[in-house]
Design brief:
By secondary structure, the protein is mainly alpha-helical. The chain has 27 helices and 4 strands.
Length: 644
Amino acid sequence: MPSTTWKDTKSGDGNVYNDAVGLSSKDKYADTSLNGKKEGSSNIPMHENNSVDPALNMVLNLRQRLEAMTSDLERVQAAADRLSKQIDEYDSDDHEINTNKEKINDANENNYNHKPTLYHTKTEEKANSNVKDDTDVESEEEWEASSIEKDPINITEVDEEECERLADERKEEGNQLYKQKNYREALHKYSEAIDLCPQCAAFYGNRSACYLMLGQPRQALEDSKTATTLDPLFIKAWSRLAKCSIMLGDTVTARQANQKAGSPQDQDLKNLEALERFKEETMNALNNKDYRRALYCLDKCLEIATHSLPLKATRAECLAFLGRYAEAQEAANGVLTLDSMNADAIYVRGLCLYYEDNVDRAFSHFQQVLRFAPDHTKAKEAYKKAKQLKLKKEEGNTAFKAGQLTDALGLYTEALGIDPFNRTTNSKLYFNRATVHAKLGKLENSIDDCSKAIDLDNTYIKAYLRRAKSYMDTEQYEEAVRDYEHVFKTDKSNREYRQMLQNAKLELRKSKRKDYYKVLGIDKNANEEEIKKAYRKRAMDHHPDRHSGATEQEKKDHETKFKEIGEAYTILSDEKKRRAYDSGQDMDDMGGGHAGFHDIDPNTIFQAFFGGGMGGGMPGGGHQHYGGFGGGPGGGQSFSFQFG
């Protein structure tokens, strides 16, 4: 193997460079001493051409670096030991030791009120003065330890100044966008400014204005509160806080904010006074259970407090009490869209389900409210009433099915007294009680309860049918036809409804004619013998000859009745005519071109019944002598009677 030698050369700048390693002797990791041997030692093998063996060169290079790194590690360890010793000494004296990270955080928290003290390292002092003072010289380890505390704060101070500058730029950009009515982009710029400088009240005030213009008073309120906390003398922030509170229906906070602002705007003051007045009227109406008046006042409140969730929830409750369940549900859902855990809105939804007789789902809603708000009084009361009402109704149904009509009547009556605002359930209870009344033969009571059921629910078909049936049974045919017509209009394809309506119309038509059964004073099922007997008696009672000494008006009345008796006998004594009459046909139109029944001469009927030359014993053994009325007008003659 050829011999090698170590060779040093000098560059033009006076620095010594190692030809083998190629590192400056000034390099921290270029210490060329090996095991105490000085550089240029003759025991480093050289080639004949004065070059170092490449493999050996690599080994030497690695060894040199390893030793340099080991030396640095020892110095760092020594510095760490000294710091640990200092910490132990501070702990023993009850001093608080702040780490580098804590100091940076403290500086960030206080950067709005003051700037941190600027520290300079010894290296910077020497660089500025170019004077070497042995008394101020720190060891390398001491310099490294002190720089751990000082250098990061220099960086923080620079960052704070830069943050303030950037925040002002973002604010100006936001102002320009606000003037252009580009509120969303302006909001974004103000938010960036707040992120950069979170202690600036003006930035929160500007962002609050953007939120207001975007119709988001809740967010605007939070920013206004933050602004007034950071700067209690920020008048615009107090005015904006009052405006937000009015929009949210909080009159107390609005009044306090106006006092802080000093001189509120006239319109804001008018709105506040109007809102306070209508809220007071609303409470009075609710206490009196005047829900229509309360609804009117709430609508007036919401024209001012457009974003008030409590007022919207109260309005939904009033709609539920007025039976406008779909509107109430919609209003409650609108509140839940903005606040999914709003107990008042969930309570209103449960109330609507309860009033629509969906009791099981109502129970779950009331229970959910009481989980969110255990002291929710209204939910407790509604839950209690719902359970009581369900129980009484079921007990009444059970008694009715068992045929215990009197007990059922009492239970339905008790149930009706539990909650007068439950329109749907009460409507069904009135119908059930009407059915009991009908079975007990109390038809007028049945009609009355059906009418109450319909008043509460005008779509209740069963109540219409029950009332129509009771009307028919009491011969109130016009009312029955009206109810059947209403039912038939709801479902014109229903044949049963059509037949009921036709029957009612027939009875109505029949009721408008003379009731020949009533004229003779007989039942509709009377037989032929009963019809003759009735005619004989009534014809004799009202024959004009028997009332020759009466007044003219009395004579006229008896003649009219005598004629009606004759018509009744003519129709009811003829089986075909009676059948036609019972079917509701117009008797004046029967027989084609024949004369109407109103033209029948009652004297002819009388003579035919008693027999023209035929003798006939009269009741009591009396003898009768017949004359005859003339067929034409003015030709009438009177009968003469002789009674024994």
